[in-house]
Amino acid sequence: QGGPLWISITVVDTYGNPVPDLEIFVTTLNMPSIRAEESEQVGEYIAFIEFLPLTEGYGWKNISIEVHGQFVQPKEMSDKFTLVVADPNIAMEVGTIVSFTGISFALSLIGMFIYFRLAPTLRRTSTSREELEKSVKGMDRLYLIIVLASALGLAGSMGLYSVGDYGGALILTV
């Protein structure tokens, strides 16, 4: 997935002798046919696919090979091969990780500071039932805002991670 693919094809006759000067076409992964070029070794042909589609799922895939030549009866063969999952490229430099972690920590600290500044203003010292209910409703609203902000941060983090912005995803995980 996403990388190049070299396909080596060796053609021999009934007696095991290599067969030169053939036209060989390779078809796989719903891509256009690719002509295999003859290598320096007699009877060996190489087909090169520069970039395999990332959208193609991993697992067993079909490959079809057509052989044409002057003294060869045209023949089409097919087989299966395993397409492996592409290695993820999530490397970030240490400086980038440290800076994004610092920003994440600063955002967390600011949020905690805001919470501790707002919480005392919502507290009521009166013992009347109405004042207590008003205080509880205010704290409930504050908690709701915190939960909604966390959910938005998580959704944003997942969105950034899915498009490859790992630094932004790291910031929003707080």
Produce a short descriptive summary.
The protein has a six-stranded antiparallel β-sheet with strand order 1-4-3-2-5-6, with no helix packed on it. It has helices at residues 94-122, 129-162, 166-172, and strands spanning 5-10, 22-28, 34-38, 44-49, 59-69, 72-83.
Describe this structure in words.
The protein has 174 residues and is of the alpha+beta class. The chain has two domains: 79 residues, Immunoglobulin-like, CATH 2.60.40; 79 residues. It is built from three helices and six strands.
Strand order of the largest sheet: 1-4-3-2-5-6
Element-level helix/strand string = EEEEEEHHH
Shape call? rod-shaped
Chain-averaged pLDDT = 81
Number of strands: 6
Number of domains: 2
What's the tally of helices? 3
Please give a handful of descriptors for the protein shown.
transmembrane helix; membrane; 174 residues; 2 domains; transmembrane; alpha+beta
Write the layout of secondary structure elements.
Elements lengths: L4 E6 L11 E7 L5 E5 L5 E6 L9 E11 L2 E12 L10 H29 L6 H34 L3 H7 L2
Antiparallel strand pairs: 1-4, 2-3, 2-5, 3-4, 5-6
Keywords: Membrane, Transmembrane, Transmembrane helix
